[in-house]
Amino acid sequence: MSRVRIRGIYTTALTERLRDEFEVVQASPPIRRRFDADFPSEEYDVSVETTDDRQGAGVVGDPEAVAPIADDLAEVGVDTFRWSDPAPRGAVFDAAVTDTLGGGAVVDLGEREGYLSFGKTDRRVHEGDRVRVQVHEAAAPWVDHRPVLGTEVQAFGGVASLSKGIDKVVASGDDATRTELARTTQMLPTEVPDDWGVRWEYAAEDAGMDALDDALGGAVAQAETIDAGLADAPDSPENAASADLPRRLVAPEATTWLWFGRASRFGLDADRRAVTTTMPGHHRVKAAHASASSAVDFVEDLWAETECLGDADDDFPTGAALRQFGPSEDDRLEIHHGKPDGRCFSLGRGEVTACDPEEGKVTVRREMSGRGTYDALGTARESGDVAVTKFREGRWWYPTVYRSDDGERKGTYVNICTPVELFPDAARYVDLHVDVVKFPDGEVERVDDDELDEAVEDGDVAPDLAEKARSVASSVERALK
Q1: What local confidence, expressed as pLDDT, does residue 312 receive?
Q2: 452 and 419 in one domain?
Q3: Which of 72, 148, 173, 272 is deepest in the core (most CB within 10 A)?
Q4: pTM over 0.85
């Protein structure tokens, strides 16, 4: 049974979901209390952590263990998306620097770019330099930052980690703990390979001797995989031809990303509700903002004491969420346009000109620049044009009407997408390719069905989700005619 450590706002739901098939380890005190269970303080095979933007989770660790856990989580809801990262944590690349920024360098890893801080290398690097780097922190494909790279090679773990070229033992914690763990290392049966140093992480404080040795053994196995991969690589990437770079030399771990849409968050609510008091829309609200997360905790504690929590089938309190956290009229709202392949773009930021919290409706007005034409409509995009977009929480589509500065209608574009979520600073969804447009002369046309078909063939969109998108597009098309 693979061992999994879970962290972040989805922890209770994912623990309930995974604990029958996988062994949950290193559980936090609230989780131990909530499940009234003891969880081992052992090394994990896989770590599942909420992404910094609270929109999904990363699954990192032993490739054979990552796959079944990611398979399970991909079934959370119809709008759960899954991507395998070509630059997983721990992967080592020979690559070229493509640009330098104020504090570091951009490195071409092939399908992705990475960021190498100047503080993570022992020499100043410049555009065109060849470097050997390791992914120290992977990054979800939809976020606005690159994977973090370093030139120090490490074998990562939650109890024990190893660093290549460092001949010492270090540990987290106070002086007494560090001294004890340093002495314990010498007593463990597992031998650390030459040229690798040991770092004991915070979780080592609560681990017994057998667990420490098991953790060290896992880190050593990962280090040996790295050594074997680097043994067949050239001594240095400096002399590599440009055509040969980038090249991935070894990847001891896998990283998979999951984006949870609105329906998926409600599915996770049901998992959590089986364990503890859970308000309708628990994860939808928590995903909005840190202050919203704290408010949910307070409300649920209050409900648990007064026993006045609503039924599991109660509607999500859209009005309360929008009134308390926004967006509100006169706010600036960004449009986060997700793509089924994992990318996310901003379609710009506009003024909220109308907001109906009870109905979950928001109208956003954007002033457009004067370049090119509007997608699918073919009408000219000119300075002074205005785009008015109407969102409704939970709806599988939204319309945008384009007008010139004198009010002339230039067309309507209806985007078919996963259920819209209205967060305080952004409307979020994943575009499902197929769309419906209405031209200035009133003609209605459905577009980009072929792109949806290709996304299904590529595995980016599940067949049932594609069928839902087609059904929604058909309904919108009929309504516009």
Answers
A1: 52
A2: yes
A3: 272
A4: yes
Q: How far apart are CA 454 and CA 433, in angstroms?
A: 10
- pLDDT tier for residue 47 given thresholds of 50, 70 and 90: very high
**What residues contact 413, with CB distance under 8 A and at least 6 apart?**
374, 375, 376, 377, 399, 400, 402, 435, 437
Strands (E), 138-214: 148-150, 154-155, 160-164, 169-171, 196-200
Residues spanned by the domain of 224? 89-251
The token duo for 305 is 């004491």
Give the pLDDT band (50/70/90) at residue 230. very high
Q: Is the pLDDT of residue 310 over 60?
A: no
Confidence (pLDDT) at 311:
54
- At 102, give phi and psi (nearest 5°): -60, -40
CA terminus-to-terminus distance, the chain:
56
Give how many domains the chain has, as a whole number. 3
Q: How far from 57 is each of 9, 10, 332, 362, 417, CA to CA, in Å?
A: 10, 8, 27, 28, 21
In a domain? residue 352? yes
Residue 292 domain-assigned (yes or no): no
Q: How far is CA 354 from CA 195, 348, 350, 457, in A?
A: 63, 18, 12, 40
The residue among 471, 461, 476 whose CA lies nearest residue 78 is: 461
Beta bridge partners of 104: 117
- β-pairing, 104-108 with 92-100? antiparallel
